[in-house]
Amino acid sequence: MKKWYAVLAGFLLWQTAVLAQAPGTPASGNRPAQTNGASGQRPAMPQIGRLYGKLVDAQSGKPVEYASVALLKQKDSSVVTGMLTKPNGDFSLENLPFGAFTMRINFMGYTTVYKKVTITPQTTDQDLGNIKLKANTKVLQEVEITGQKSAFTMGIDKKVFNVDRNLVSVGGTATDVLKSVPAVNVDIDGNVTVRNASPNIFVDGKPSTLTLDQIPADAIESVELITNPSAKYDAEGMSGILNIVLKKNKKAGINGMVMAGVGTGDKYNAGGNLNVRQGKFNVFANYNINANRTVGEGTTHRTNFGGFNGTPGDTNYLFQNSDSRSQPLFQFGRFGLDYYLDNRNTISISQNIVAGDFKTSENLQSIFSNSNKAVTAMNDRINHSNFNFRNYTTQVGFKHTYAKPNKEWSGDFNYNRSSNGRDGDFNTQSLLPDGTPKGQPVLQNNNSDGKSTFITIQTDYTNPIGKNGKLELGAKATFRDYSSIYKVYNQDTLTGKYNFVDSLSNDYKYNEQIYAGYVNYANTVGNFGYQAGLRVEQYVYAGEIPSQQKKYSPTKAAPGFFPSLYLSQKLKHDQELQLNYSRRVNRPNFFQLIPYRDYTDPQNQREGNPNLKPEFTNSLEFSYVKNWTNVNFLGTLYFRNTNNMISTISTPIGKDTLLTQFVNANKNNSYGAELTVKNQIIKGWDLTTNVNLYQSELQVRTAKENFNNKGFSWFAKINSETKLPANFTFQVNATYQAPTIALPNNGGGRGGGFMMVPASAQGMIKGFSSVDVAVRKDFLKNKAASLTLSLSDVFNTRQYELDQTTPSFWQDYIRKRESRILKLQFSYRFGKFDSQLFKRNKNKKQDNDSNMQMGDPGQGF
User: Fold this and answer.
1) Helices (H), strands (E): how many in the chain?
2) Could you give the residue range(s) of every CATH 2.170.130.10 domain in the chain?
3) pTM, to two decimals
4) In this structure, which topology does domain 47-149 adopt according to CATH?
5) What is the DSSP letter of 745?
6) Which of 22, 99, 132, 258 could tie 631 with a disulfide, CB 3.0–4.6 Å?
């Protein structure tokens, strides 16, 4: 661990030196030329651009049909593509490469119009609005759309990281992808933190019940990190929002990819995607299957001091050793279509179907010792269980864009239904101190059944005001229903029959509703930009225990107000300052509220608290961004204050048993600095370094004890990508987490679907490190095929260790899952563009084709 500390410290010093020696800043406003990742060489330009609009008569406003629209390269005026406008005046040029072009529009009786346009990764889909054709007048003023792709895109309230080229996550899941995203930390259970707190996880801009392990890495296009979300976004999530954007190809014709992979330890994956676009339809489908056998192990050393519940007693010791195996099978399917009513009206429908089946087994051995450390008893518990889930998500959306650029209205409906079931058997054999069996084994069976529905309805409206202003309005309603039944049966040792155990069984239902509305306004004055917004949310919650005929009255808290403010100042030499503020909320989830005790591990019990209050966070951050020719730098200072933070307290309730309960902390403050640098060390080698330095303080007061837990820590991540000869690419990702107090982490937010793993007022998580490497070889024509070899956690150092010390007990808790895995992945991309999309219309005005000087319709593709 010390070696890793020294290595990363050296990297940071080196980065500082590189930054200090960065090349001279180019003229203001000229951003560095972009290259293909680490290679330094410009790749073949993706052909995914689209330019569309409508031609109208300048005087009458009527559409101009069958006019000639041609796209020419600015470099040599060669024709790229073109078409004749439709009877309603619409035109749409698709499947365009990146670059600078001139659009030429002409029709008999009108003056020819020329427009300069630039297609970049940020402007692939451009609405040129209603273009007016004038008779015998001067040409329209030229319009130029520009933009350059930087190492990471920093908007006034969002940062976007392109993860499509991430090699080490190939064949994995969203969890593996996020391990490589700067500023994001992922523990061994897939729980995610950003700046030492949990974000809310969205999929395609909407909350989802999918867990990260249920989303294949190969289905992800990008990850959007919004550390201080504006009022437009849900107020849920302490450290903002992580939005996972799924791939949806928009190339014309037929395109797709197939892939398959194998990994050490019986790990297999396969999948593919297909996209067909022609005319008014864009149809897409995606399927992935993943079967990854995993193993895990863990140990617990615990000392209970002098009794429990305030009574005197001797010191007792407990040692536990766990060995587990899991055989999961995941299947992910997604299909849908976009129907273009015309250039400005689109209906989108998609359906996700996700299924999982697990077979797990665990062998848990427990050894009990007295104050003299002499073994007094032992037991061996073997658990076998089968778990399955099904998740169905239907999305329907409508989007209308106006002739006025950037003005749009959209409506979305999202319906999610999921179910899960578990059937497990526990076989517990008591042992004498010498290890021989004591009596008959105790057999227990448990089964559970859970169902949920999750519905969201929302509408959003954006309207540019003046030259630089923008007004955003929206409303959203969320409805969630959840039910769970958990039954336990013990076997009668005499009759062999299984009897229902009411004290260990439970059932629970809850319903929550969130009604929200927001308003945002943004504008710029010279180089100064601002955005102010307010979101109002009404939250309603109701729960019940049907078997006990207990109903908890609906909790209708007063409407919550969540303001946000963003200020930015652009400086000379490609620099910018930003100051952001937002108020957030984190409401307790089902697992924290459910009022029953979990006895799965008798020595480590957990209990919910229906009286938990929501936690509210005030978040403030100040950022500085600077771009040089080959260096991009982003530095942020942040402060976060949380009231009623959801935490846990562990208390001895027996000489060898701990009970963990959820409580609201009285105080939590966290502040720190985050630095991100991406630079091209030499031609062909890109390096991204992210460092988070933070101080946290957590205070909990109970009727019996007061707990204070505070400390300084840091987190660092390095991503290196090198382009090698012969179409090889080499990638290294390294992560180090220094020792830290047990910080808040809800496992990816309510949308992530994980059980809450909250802050703890007791304990320190020990530091850990990991290194992942991968190499890829591209081959065949146009690099259509690729072979990727990856090795995760090269030094096998990734694990979780919690050390807790209180007046009542001491505990060292270690868990490790299989992390050093070698994978080989093959992928093949195919595609054929449909030239019918660009053929001339054969109609009564076909003679107007002579006005268009086009070459081969497929030219430029």
Assistant:
1) 4, 49
2) 152-246
3) 0.75
4) Immunoglobulin-like (2.60.40)
5) B
6) 22
